[in-house]
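DATA SHEET
Item: assembly model
Revision: 1
Owner: S.N.
Input lines:
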Amino acid sequence: MQEEALPAQGEAEGGEYEREPVPENRTKGWKSFIGMYAGEHAAGTEFMIGPLFVAHGVSAFDVLVGLLVGNLLAVLSWTFLCAPIAVKKRLTLYFQLEKICGVRLVELYNLANGVLFCFLAGAMISVSATAVGIPFNMPMPGLNDMYPNSIGWIIAVFAVGAVISIVAAYGYDTVAHIANIAAPWMVLVFLACGVAALPELGIYSLGDFYAIAKEKVWTGVPVEGQSQFTFLHVMFFAWFCNLAMHIGMSDLSIFRFAKKARMGLASGAGMYLGHYMAWIAAGLLYAIQLNADRTDTAVAPGPMAWKIAGMTGIICVIVAGWTTANPTIYRAGLAFQGIRPKWSRFKVTMAAGLVATLGACFPALVMKLLDFVALYGLILMPMGAIIFMDHYFSARFGLHEYYAEKARIVFNWAAGLTWFVTLALCVALNKFAGVEIFFLALPGWFIAAILYIALSKFYQKSITLEGAVS
Amino acid sequence: MKPTLMIVSILALAVLLVAPAAVFLQKMELTTCKHWMFAATVIWFATAPFWMKRKAQ
């Protein structure tokens, strides 16, 4: 049988079986999921995240064990929260949300998702721009820079952004093919960079690794101007950096093709080959730069990769940023088009690309990537809690599953208020109780889950299902 | 033809592993390793598209 591609992660719509369950005979095996996750999670942004951990002064134990535990929790979240619902229902996230929340609330979700995708793509454009600037000796933005630091930076960002946007608008299929080809090469280049970096740090045997890593890489001392990260920061970041996908249920669209829910374990390929290995390798590259000059704190993936891997490093940074920014801009376009289907796909994608490019001009977006990624997951997380509660607890609390569909409403206020109030309470926890953004999603999930059931108890009583499709 | 290209591609990937390992073991200079990695990169992108199938999107 011809093996079909899985929809790309987070893809809004546009694939097969958008409004019907995936039939059993179209489900896929382990290989498809392992390949997809390994490829999707070795991206341009990994070049930033590893160094930012170093800049935030994590210790060697924190990073090595914290990532191990956090990534495991992420894999378990995919396996026990997202995949079982996906396999049971075999519907896309958007179709399930439409049934629960109503079409207007899904439009709002699409808008939020589209805007967040734009800024995520912006961070990836920034990563590629650092490599494009090398031949021109372009000054790289500093770790604490908020605004563009040179005309050269703006030109590099616009050059990369324009190419990525035009290709996303015209030829997404070709880029997807290049991304598939680049994926195994890219994973190995990350690994190669990490291995080749070791002697530069004075590590000549595996036995030396931990002692020297503590002294020269993850020293436990943050770079000036950066906050101190602990074991919990690393663990929660690794767990929640893909929050929108697992607990947020975005990957229902992926795992609806899985034969069994246990195939959620395939996400481990992305978490350990991609995140664990790539973040550590990228951290080593940054440590070499810091050890050469303590004042050179700029996190610029291009120069870091160039120093250890030469042209291969530059190509890897450009390709890693490009192949991940491209589908992200495309998905942003799809999300916006989901709101107004009559809008031209080309124009919407170009507009999304422009927003991403404008965002990329500001180094703060990429230098504060850890915060942005945490915020991205937090904003979309309540919808995952709503889907989870609707699936497992509706009947137990005497509520109707898929209430918007049954009541024929376009905006389920119980779900809408759950989303807004949860986020408002998370902001309050952050502002008044001092809970850092990396830790908000855990209490936020429970708040959303309880709110949805409580609000639905009132709301579902107020609307009769007379004449509704049961 | 395809099996041959596939073998060449896989060998190119192997070079990406072996060259940095040789640097780690102090059997190769980093500069030489960069050249090997670049050659492997060129070979990978020149050969892999011919046997990696295009997936329907």
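QC remark: The longest helix of chain B spans residues 2-24.
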